[in-house]
């Protein structure tokens, strides 16, 4: 064993000792300068063949060699009595171009050949014949140039004259590694809910211990997605935990380093790094661990796995995370598999599967507990399912009674009132639930209180069903009971049921101040999926900030009529007798229909109020509540596309579900506390809607209460009623009850937007399946006009086709789009006719162009294209629509193109290659009012491919 003394640059002294091929560096700290009273001697083991790297620094005051201005002595040579081993602690060299000096070694004016000579002294081997290259670009540095001529500079650092250069030796090549080469890598953001290492393109850089590390850049907001993706590795499922974490403030009084980090996180496989198996190694820092009396499970949780990676949040790019994958194999230090299916010794133990349960099972357990299912029932159903499949096959099958009991205890002991002051309690809740809050604005003199809540599951549903789909708004729930109304955002699943994907809690007067939380929600979704795009946004209030929606989501905006219909019908039933209910509802339905078809204005409502002035109770309600808003509603109904009754039925069902599940407290005083509201939304209410999508909820049918109310929407129920169960006579219809065949339900005002039914669901002001079925049959028989939605689409198409042909491209695009939509609609009907029983008298949808001949001059072709079209006036000129434009100036092409984008786009049939409408009894597109849930980007189809069949 050889020893030598050395004096370190910071004043510390120590010993270098060689023993068994390892070099031990003992540092002694001056006790007079140290504030610590405990032991200050620390040993550092360094691998030493001919040159070495520092393995670990254990100085009490932090890293052994800092990168501050007081740069420590980088390299030093041991004397001869230490066997002439050369200790290379760190090969990073800081360049100060302003001072044209390198610490101890290099100058900015040094040529590359001179640097090689100094490197030869550093590594004690010839370097003249070796190349000095930049690994980021592969550029070979010329020997005749100076270091300054190579333009090695940090491009994104505020200090332009600083650069960090790493010099190392590997396989006969000297590499010059730069941080800007790492940051020049592309930031990868795969459009998936989880990111795994297989989804990324990795670059290799020089790391510690003479090995190459794999690096990649991803958005820092998606680090959790990467951790989940790596944990769900199919070959070796596991879970990663935070082994070490360091944070620093982004603002410091001194100049930042170019390679400084804001956050450092070390993630390690939960089966390591310690090894509790027989003969395994436990790190010295864990020697204080006191073994449990019964440690039967310990060998299955700590098995010495070396798989780990590092996440760095750099000062230069705070929004980007640098992933450094040091070891990507799930093996122990001997190189053998230590857990998972590849480890034969793990067979029959928990080490075969990933530790802990999956997120889906955790949500299922919590949801069942929140809605009142007992621990014993949960475990009984779980054990029965495991037995049916023949034993455990994944980590979820190992669910324990202890875990479920612990979750139940935590729920029972939790409370919504974190503080007596409601505002303070809300702030505390927001601080502890950061992952569920996408926007928060406390009450101030300039801004109202606003809180946006969205769980991870809701975000996944928004990405899944909202992409190329519809997003609906229920903006006024709890206006009369709650301190803050709830603004719900909804998407529609494959069964066309509404799923809440976000809740915004704000005072009534802040409905116009929605741009900020919309932008926050949009950014959160785009962080997960940059390709996500909304097809349409349905609003239920004409005072909604339409411009903000179009600015943020870049999509169609539609208006929903269900709320007005619900409130009008509810008060008609409350205030009037049956005969008067039928008369007033028929008149209101006729007025709204004419306004939507651009044939009415405010005068229709004035005449209505004069005609029924004797019905004072209802008229007082109508004048006080709706007369001030009628102008805004008329403008919205005439300028925005009307949402279909299919969407309205889904929104109506959600509204009733939320009412039953939220407003069921015995103590009504809690309705005035916002902390109670956010707590119940995030726990019980969220659990009910999660269970609505859970396929195994029927196993818990004995626990169902009113809050479990779910099932099909009225629209879907109408599809199940056969035509033979409907008979129409003398302006009313009778529909046989599907539950009680001996009972018939009566529907008045058949074909009207405000029909009345005597079923219990309709008497509460809701849109029932009997009304929808009768309306479908009336439209099929042609006894009523087509739906307003279809009329608005045809009107927008007609407007575009009647643009002055100043440019043949406009006309060609219009004709091409019309023919394309016709083909897609007929294709949908053909597919549905194979699976459903359709009416033999049903006709295919045709989109024709008015009977006229016109000439289109195309400058690009240099020839005349004469196109003749034939049309039936009942399609594009409904209710005299064409005559109205004969007397007025034709609308501008820009406006027409905007209208067709707002209304015509909704006619596209597919989303991600799937058919948008499920099979029903009747063909939906022609008979019933449907919102196609998806759109495709408008494409300018080649005219030559679509026009020939119409040309002469």
From TrEMBL:
UniProt-listed InterPro entries: Ubiquitin-like_dom, Ubiquitin-like_domsf, Znf_SWIM
Keyword Transit peptide: no
Domain of life: Eukaryota
GO molecular function terms attached to this record: zinc ion binding
SUPFAM superfamilies: Ubiquitin-like (SSF54236)
Domain SWIM-type per the UniProt entry, residue ranges: 742-779
Chain spans, region Disordered: 916-952
Gene3D superfamilies in the cross-refs: Phosphatidylinositol 3-kinase Catalytic Subunit, Chain A, domain 1
Keywords noted in UniProt: Metal-binding, Zinc, Zinc-finger
Residues covered by the Ubiquitin-like domain: 89-152
A Pfam family assignment: ubiquitin
First and last residue of the signal peptide: none
Name assigned to this protein: SWIM-type domain-containing protein
């Amino acid at each position: 064993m050889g020893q030598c003394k050395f004096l370190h640059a910071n004043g510390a002294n120590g010993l270098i000792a060689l023993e068994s091929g390892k070099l031990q560096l003992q540092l002694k700290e001056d006790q007079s300068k140290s504030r610590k009273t405990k032991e200050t001697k620390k040993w550092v083991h360094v691998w030493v063949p001919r040159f070495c790297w520092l393995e670990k620094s254990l100085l009490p005051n932090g890293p052994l060699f800092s990168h501050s201005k007081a740069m420590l002595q980088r390299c030093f040579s041991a004397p001869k009595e230490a066997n002439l081993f050369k200790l290379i602690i760190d090969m990073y060299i800081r360049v100060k171009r302003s001072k044209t000096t390198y610490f101890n070694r290099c100058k900015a004016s040094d040529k590359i050949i001179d640097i090689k000579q100094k490197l030869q002294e550093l590594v004690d081997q010839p370097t003249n014949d070796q190349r000095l290259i930049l690994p980021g670009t592969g550029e070979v540095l010329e020997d005749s140039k100076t270091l300054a001529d190579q333009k090695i500079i940090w491009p994104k650092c505020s200090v332009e004259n600083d650069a960090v250069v790493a010099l190392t030796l590997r396989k006969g090549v000297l590499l010059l590694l730069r941080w800007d080469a790492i940051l020049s890598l592309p930031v990868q953001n795969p459009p998936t809910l989880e990111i795994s290492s297989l989804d990324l393109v990795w670059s290799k850089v020089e790391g510690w211990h003479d090995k190459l590390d794999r690096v990649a850049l991803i958005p820092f907001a998606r680090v959790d997605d990467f951790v989940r993706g790596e944990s769900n590795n199919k070959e070796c499922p596991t879970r990663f935990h935070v082994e070490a974490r360091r944070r620093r403030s982004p603002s410091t009084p001194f100049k930042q380093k170019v390679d400084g980090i804001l956050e450092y996180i070390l993630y390690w496989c939960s089966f390591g790094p310690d090894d509790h198996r027989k003969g395994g190694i436990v790190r010295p820092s864990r020697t204080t661990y006191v073994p449990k009396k019964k440690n039967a499970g310990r060998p299955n949780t700590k098995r010495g796995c070396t798989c780990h990676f590092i996440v760095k949040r750099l000062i230069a790019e705070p929004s980007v995370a640098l992933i450094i994958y040091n070891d990507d194999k799930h093996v122990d230090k001997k190189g053998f598999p230590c857990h998972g299916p590849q480890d034969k010794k793990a067979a029959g133990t928990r080490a075969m599967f990933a530790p802990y349960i999956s997120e889906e099972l955790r949500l299922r357990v919590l949801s069942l507990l929140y809605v009142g299912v007992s621990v014993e029932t949960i475990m009984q159903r779980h054990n029965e399912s495991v037995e049916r499949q023949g034993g455990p096959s994944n980590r979820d099958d190992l669910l324990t009674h202890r875990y479920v009991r612990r979750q139940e205890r935590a729920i029972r002991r939790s409370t919504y009132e974190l503080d007596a002051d409601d505002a303070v309690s809300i702030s505390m809740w927001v601080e502890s639930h950061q992952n569920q809050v996408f926007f928060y604005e406390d009450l101030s003199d300039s801004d109202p209180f606003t809180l946006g809540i969205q769980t991870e599951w809701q975000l996944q549903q928004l990405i899944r069903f909202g992409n190329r789909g519809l997003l609906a708004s229920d903006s006024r729930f709890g206006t009369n009971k709650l301190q803050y109304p709830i603004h719900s955002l909804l998407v529609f699943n494959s069964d066309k049921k509404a799923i809440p994907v976000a809740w915004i809690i704000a005072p009534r007067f802040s409905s116009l101040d929605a741009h900020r939380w919309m932008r926050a929600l949009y950014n959160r979704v785009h962080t997960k999926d940059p390709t996500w795009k909304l097809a349409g946004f349905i609003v239920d209030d004409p005072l909604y900030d339409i411009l903000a929606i179009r600015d943020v989501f870049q999509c169609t905006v539609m208006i929903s009529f269900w709320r007005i219909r619900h409130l009008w019908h509810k008060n008609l039933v409350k205030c009037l007798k049956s005969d008067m209910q039928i008369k007033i509802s028929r008149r209101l339905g006729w007025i709204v229909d004419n306004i939507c078809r651009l044939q009415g204005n405010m005068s229709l409502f004035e005449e209505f109020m004069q005609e029924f002035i004797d019905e004072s109770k209802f008229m007082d309600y109508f004048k006080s509540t709706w007369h001030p808003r009628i102008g805004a509603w008329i403008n919205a109904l005439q300028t925005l596309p009307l949402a279909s009754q299919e969407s309205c039925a889904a929104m109506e069902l959600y509204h009733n579900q939320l009412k039953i599940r939220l407003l069921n407290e015995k103590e009504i005083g809690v309705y005035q506390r916002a902390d109670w509201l956010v707590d119940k939304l995030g726990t019980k209410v969220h659990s009910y809607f999660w269970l609505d999508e859970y396929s195994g909820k029927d196993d818990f049918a004995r626990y169902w209460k009113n809050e479990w109310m779910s099932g099909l929407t009225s629209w879907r129920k109408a599809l199940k009623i056969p035509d033979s169960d409907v008979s129409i006579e003398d302006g009313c219809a009778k529909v046989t009850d599907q539950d009680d065949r001996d009972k018939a339900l009566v529907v008045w005002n058949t074909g009207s937007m405000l029909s009345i039914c005597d079923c219990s669901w309709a008497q509460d002001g809701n849109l029932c399946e009997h009304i929808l079925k009768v309306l479908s049959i009336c439209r099929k028989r042609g006894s009523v006009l087509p739906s307003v939605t279809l009329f608005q689409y045809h009107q927008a198409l007609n407007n575009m086709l009647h643009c002055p042909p100043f440019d043949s491209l406009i006309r060609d695009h219009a004709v091409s789009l019309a023919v394309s939509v016709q083909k897609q609609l007929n294709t949908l009907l053909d597919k549905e006719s194979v699976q459903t029983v359709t009416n033999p008298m049903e006709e295919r949808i045709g989109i024709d162009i008015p009977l006229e001949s016109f000439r289109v001059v195309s400058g690009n072709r240099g020839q005349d294209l004469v196109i003749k079209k034939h049309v039936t006036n009942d399609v594009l000129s409904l209710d005299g629509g064409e005559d109205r434009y004969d007397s007025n100036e034709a609308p501008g092409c820009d406006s027409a193109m905007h209208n067709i984008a707002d209304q015509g786009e909704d006619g596209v049939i597919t989303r991600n290659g799937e058919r948008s409408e499920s099979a029903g009894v009747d063909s939906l597109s022609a008979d019933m009012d449907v919102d196609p849930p998806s759109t495709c980007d408008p494409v300018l189809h080649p005219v030559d491919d679509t026009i020939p069949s119409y040309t002469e």
